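A.,

Following up on our hallway conversation. Structure tokens first:
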């Protein structure tokens, strides 16, 4: 492994991190949970093709956490 690879933030989220999310999260957090890059996530949301429910609030996108957890098989 290269030295610069150890300094990067992990791409995904742990189960514990996912289960402590609020009711809705910003798109960057949703992207991280799904392992999507920022550009890809925003492109999918803009086209209405994001893999779970996304709310458009003004200029911001919010991912519904319950749908995100369900998609990841972590729904209560």
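Then the amino acids I'd put at each of the 76 positions:
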């Amino acid at each position: 492994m290269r030295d610069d690879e150890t300094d990067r933030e992990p791409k995904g989220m742990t189960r514990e991190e996912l289960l402590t999310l609020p009711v809705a999260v910003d798109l960057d957090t949703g992207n991280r949970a799904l392992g999507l890059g920022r550009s890809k996530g925003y492109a999918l949301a803009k086209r209405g093709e994001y893999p779970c429910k996304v709310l458009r609030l003004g200029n911001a996108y919010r991912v519904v956490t319950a749908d995100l957890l369900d998609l990841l098989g972590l729904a209560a």
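The chain has a mean pLDDT of 85. Curious whether your intuition agrees with the design.

B.
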